[in-house]
């Protein structure tokens, strides 16, 4: 069976994975993949946002090339804690646009304020997702 990488990535994207990279296909037919999983983070005050967290997984496809099973693909507690720390550091250092800044006039393409590298945007499912907008050299 030949691997249809585009279809595989589309199937995994529907499951909340992004930045998908196929590493190799094993002799067993399983496929090793590195990706980011959009994972919910609970912030202070009951606020929740989704952040992309790196994960490794192996995927088995059915005869039609669709995902049949996934082993792995769930962020571990250390990665979740690191992502939560990262979000807090972004907020504390002024690199995360505030709610008003991020949603001003509903324009996500608006240039971020000086020093802002990240903002929270709503995705197609209405989730609030942390997104990098630019890099900053300190």
Helix content percent band: 10-25%
Let me know the number of strands.
6
Q: What Rg do the Cα atoms give?
A: 17 Å
Strand content: 35-45%
Topology order in helix (H) and strand (E) letters? HEEEEHHEE
Query: Structural class of the helix and strand makeup?
Result: alpha+beta
> Could you give the order of strands across the largest sheet?
1-2-3-4
Task: Give the overall average pLDDT.
Answer: 85
Provide the number of structural domains: 1
The poorly predicted ranges are 100-108
Tally of alpha and pi helices: 3
- The CA-CA distance between the termini, in Å, is 49 Å
How is the main sheet built?
Answer: 4 strands, antiparallel
Overall outline? elongated
Primary descriptors:
138 residues, two-stranded antiparallel sheet, 22% helix, alpha+beta
Structure notes:
The chain has 138 residues and is of the alpha+beta class. It has one domain (5-132). Helices cover 22% and strands 37% of the residues. A four-stranded antiparallel beta sheet has the order 1-2-3-4. Strands 5-6 form a two-stranded antiparallel ribbon. The longest helix has 16 residues, at 77-92. The protein is elongated. The protein starts with a helix and ends in a 6-residue tail after the last strand. 15% of the residues are buried. Mean pLDDT is 85; it is low at 100-108.
